[in-house]
Structure formats: structure tokens, C-alpha cells
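Students often ask why inverse folding is considered easier than folding. One informal answer: many sequences map to the same fold, so there is more than one right answer. In these notes we will look at a single instance of the problem. The structure comes first.
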């Protein structure tokens, strides 16, 4: 007897007010500003931002899509289509990107870090730095190409520590190039990269911390958090004109529900379960 395959759950797509979306990380101006022009030219929202509702509030925290939300806001569009997910979904995974910094000489990179206001630096062994980071006793640690490991410390409340973290990233982002890495061991990355200054290793965050920083407006630097979203909706290609017209939010959600129903009926919605490498990004 053949067991029937269970139909995957259709993504929860909604139209929400842009003003109700809270960022937990900074947008990247180098990406959001060109995106404004692309959205204006194409007139389409290709991939909806991923958001999670904040319990007891009408607002949502943006898990993925800070640049898209910023670009839509810059265009003066009051409503945007999003994919709503449950932050407590066991299949939703929150991981951390680390920053491989390139294009800066090692000495200048060290001088940048020493110049950050309110941040203390100590040399440490790699094992001890990882232990401190897991206990959240430090902001981050840095592995340098000469083998030195620096732990970065900051005092103060959530706003102050987040300010320090943003200033650290802003320093090397302005003069170098950032490559996101999912490993915290610099030697394993060196065979694939040239002109490396060092690897900045960030802590693993919890969902409650992400909601907390969003609620108080203490955004983390761009390119640190990584949300792995099950059943992510891609290439929806919704017209921005429909999202930005004078209809009410309720009317736009009825329009979106009808749009989704028609796409399902025409079999133009496909679900790909397997993991994938893309080589044309």
C-alpha cells in the first residue's frame, strides 16, 4: 500500500502596514539604496520579507528582509506583503554569521579595533575566547592572521553594548569587504580567500533577544543573524502598485488571498524540499 504524501503547508502571506514592522538589525545602505531603484524600475516585490508577530502587540519583528522593508518605506509605500512565521516553530533555526574581513592590512585592522570607543580588548587563547562568548561575557572575539585572538568587551545596557557592536562593524565595513562565514575558525577559511585581515566571531543569539532588541530599537549590525526559514516563499512577484494603492489593509488582504488561491489552482506553486547550492548568485 502506498502512503499518500502530505501536502506541505502553504506559506502564510499577508499584507501589513510597513509602520508595524520592527527591524532587529541595521539595513545595509550599499544594498538597500540600489534596491530602491530596482523596485521602482521593476514595480514588483519579488520575495516577501519574513516576519514574526510580537505576542500581545500588533507589530512584527523582521527576521529577514531589512533592506526590502527599508526600500519599500523609502518609496513611500504604506503596505507591504510579508510571510508570517511562528518564531517558536521547531523547524525555524536561528544561527549566526561571522565576518571574514578582507581588503585591509592586518595592522590597520588592529588599529581600527583599538580605536572603538567603549570597547576593551584583551588577548586570549581561542578556546577561552569561545567559552567567554558562549557565556556572553564578551561582545565578540577576533582571530587575526598572525594567530592572535582578541576578546572584545563592553559595559552598559543593551543599547550601549549594541552601539559598540555597530561601531566595530562600521569601522571595518567602510574600508574593507565583509564575507559572511558560518565557521568560527580562521585557518579553515584561509585556503579559499586572499587579502584576509581577520575573522570577527559573534555570539549565538536567542529568539527572545532578537525580539527584545527590535522592541527597544537597538538594532544589531547587518549580516550577523541568519534565520533558516522552513517553507520560505520566493518569487511571488507582487505588483507594488497594488500594495501602494488607496485600498484599505483589509481589502488588500482579500486581494492577496484571491491571488494565492488562483496560483494554487493553476499549479504554479511548487515546493522544493531538498537543500540546494546555487552557483549564479
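Output (designed amino acids):
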Amino acid at each position: 500500500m502506498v502512503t499518500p504524501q502530505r501536502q506541505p503547508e502553504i506559506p502564510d502571506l499577508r499584507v501589513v502596514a510597513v509602520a508595524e514592522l520592527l527591524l532587529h538589525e541595521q539595513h545595509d545602505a550599499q544594498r538597500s539604496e540600489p534596491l530602491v531603484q530596482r523596485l521602482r524600475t521593476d514595480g514588483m516585490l519579488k520575495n516577501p520579507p519574513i516576519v514574526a508577530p510580537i505576542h500581545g502587540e500588533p507589530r512584527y519583528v523582521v527576521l529577514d528582509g531589512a533592506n526590502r522593508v527599508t526600500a519599500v518605506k523609502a518609496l513611500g509605500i504604506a503596505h507591504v506583503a510579508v510571510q508570517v512565521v511562528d518564531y517558536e516553530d521547531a523547524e525555524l533555526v536561528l544561527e549566526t554569521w561571522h565576518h571574514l574581513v578582507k581588503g585591509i592590512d592586518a595592522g590597520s585592522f588592529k588599529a581600527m579595533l583599538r580605536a572603538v570607543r567603549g570597547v576593551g580588548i584583551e588577548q586570549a587563547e581561542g578556546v577561552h575566547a569561545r567559552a567567554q562568548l558562549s557565556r556572553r561575557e564578551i561582545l565578540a572575539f577576533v582571530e587575526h592572521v598572525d594567530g592572535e585572538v582578541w576578546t572584545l568587551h563592553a559595559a552598559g545596557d543593551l543599547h550601549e553594548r549594541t552601539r559598540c557592536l555597530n561601531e566595530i562593524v562600521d569601522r571595518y565595513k567602510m574600508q574593507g569587504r565583509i564575507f559572511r562565514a558560518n565557521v568560527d575558525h580562521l585557518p579553515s577559511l584561509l585556503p579559499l580567500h586572499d587579502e584576509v585581515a581577520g575573522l570577527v566571531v559573534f555570539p549565538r543569539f536567542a529568539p527572545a533577544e532578537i525580539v527584545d532588541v527590535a522592541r527597544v530599537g537597538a538594532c544589531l549590525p547587518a549580516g550577523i543573524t541568519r534565520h533558516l526559514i522552513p517553507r520560505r516563499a520566493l518569487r511571488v512577484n507582487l505588483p507594488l502598485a497594488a500594495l501602494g494603492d488607496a485600498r484599505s489593509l483589509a481589502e488588500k488582504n482579500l486581494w492577496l488571498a484571491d491571488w494565492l488561491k488562483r496560483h494554487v489552482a493553476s499549479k504554479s506553486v511548487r515546493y522544493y524540499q531538498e537543500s540546494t547550492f546555487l552557483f549564479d548568485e
